[in-house]
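Researcher: Here's my situation. A collaborator sent me these components and asked whether they could plausibly form a single complex. I don't have experimental data yet, so a predicted model of the whole assembly would be a useful starting point for our discussion.
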Amino acid sequence: MHYLVTGGAGFIGSSLVDRLLSLGHKVTAFDNFSTGLERFVENARKNPNYTLVKGDLLDEGALQAAAKGVDFIFHLAANADVRFGTEHPRKDLEQNTIATFNVLEAARLGGAKGLAFSSTGSVYGEATVIPTPEDAPFPIQTSLYAASKLAGEGMLAAYSEGFGLKTYIFRFVSILGPRYTHGHVYDFYRKLSADPSQLTVLGDGKQRKSYLHIDDCISAMLTVVEKAEDKVNIFNLGTDEYCEIVNSIGWICEEMGVSPTLSYTGGDRGWIGDNPFIYLDTKKVRALGWKPQFTIEQGVRNTLNWLKANDWVYAERG
Amino acid sequence: MHYLVTGGAGFIGSSLVDRLLSLGHKVTAFDNFSTGLERFVENARKNPNYTLVKGDLLDEGALQAAAKGVDFIFHLAANADVRFGTEHPRKDLEQNTIATFNVLEAARLGGAKGLAFSSTGSVYGEATVIPTPEDAPFPIQTSLYAASKLAGEGMLAAYSEGFGLKTYIFRFVSILGPRYTHGHVYDFYRKLSADPSQLTVLGDGKQRKSYLHIDDCISAMLTVVEKAEDKVNIFNLGTDEYCEIVNSIGWICEEMGVSPTLSYTGGDRGWIGDNPFIYLDTKKVRALGWKPQFTIEQGVRNTLNWLKANDWVYAERG
């Protein structure tokens, strides 16, 4: 099989590329390196089945050339900057909604049979049913990021109906693990490295979140693409547990051997549009035989240890 | 109050403009006249409270100038060509999704307090709960048109959360009545005028649809904007009944005094992405005190009589 992976030099994309190459597939990675990193594609570059295209998804010509003749597309490129959406509202529209449209057009014109898309558990807004199943009540969006992912989901489904493309939509919780370069573990490790005596936490620290390890995430995506048989396949990906941010801080401090004084900015959420409780129902993906290998605690600890061994990422990513 | 009405020269927009002017408000209509008609704004032009701006929503400068200082925006402009979405997939993205983003930015920059948006009952896809309430299970999109309206809804809600704009989302059934210039009554009247002996019907004629008269639609919108108090206000607008297409054909033939032989293209839907059964639960809007004055039958007959008296629209709209 020949796969195209957009965002193929990023955290999730480069990990997926390595997995697909290890399974003997041909892979084209497409990335504009806005957040992707050269070091993440170093190993892939040594593989003759690998092609790297440096390009932007808003450049339709480059994208369509890269997509021509591929069998399947994983569209993982995105502006994943959930928190600062209101500072640059057009970014989610361009890099997520319009970019996803361009990928769909490239899939249609290039003859791909299927397309998988990284959506987000944030499309459930402030969910009224928890754990939240895929057919939860029609939600109200709370962030430009989630709204742009919802827009992408809708276009994928319409392309399935209109053009026969088989589509796969993954509503992720937060993903962590090796190559993780943004999020609370990343931020807290940097802050505690600079000053182990104190840490300021957004909100009240009681926000409840779920995290999935990258290895489990990739196994789940590949399981769904192999086994799910609907025209439009929508799957929550997460663990069957959640933690409070303060729990995670405890594990991070333990791994670092630090005991900071914690202070809180207050309120029940970290930022405008932050959802104080994200916990997805994952029965649907488990019914396909997948289950995670990492608990949230193991995932946080594994992430921290990767950051400790790879703190060059802070120099490159800031 | 100073209102901006996008699509202000179209079917719904021009009818709303006339109502707002009759209530003594100041109104700016913004329209690119792609489907709007000069004759629909003739009366408004005589009113000193009326300003007409000929412009396109993709022209951000013109839009922001028109929106500057208005109190409230009704964003009704759209590509409403549901049926032919797959022939020009980019049209829904540009004229609905991107245009709606531009209107939101214009609202934010221009200081509007609120924004109302014409979405569609088609966002429920092939609904599993009928009549379909606003909090129906998270739907799967079936047309590029509905997907682009869903994208608009999501952005409106995110702007409410991020920027404090009060938003109103109307999920319409099909609207008909005076100034109606596309849809099955429009098409059938034209075909039967040309050849009263026979009529070809898309699908099996058993598609069940709901229709709302334009006067009732406008009263409903104004009731919601006046009375609904949430940050994001989502309302189905429709009648508490549905008809089969064959029923509607019967009323049309009766009004025209014709008895065509009917033939059917077959299948349970009119086109790819057509939903064979649209029937919305309207308890929420009724709870605000609104109720429709027209039954579906009265609406269809009223529309047909308007078309008979105004068949110049066929020359102008085709």
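Model: Some features of this prediction you could bring to your collaborator: Chain A has eleven helices and 13 strands. Chain A touches chain B at residues 85-86, 89-90, 93, 97-98, 101, 104-105, 108, 124-125, 134-144, 146-148, 150-151, 153-155, 157-159, 161-163, 232, 234, 272-273 (CB under 8 Å).
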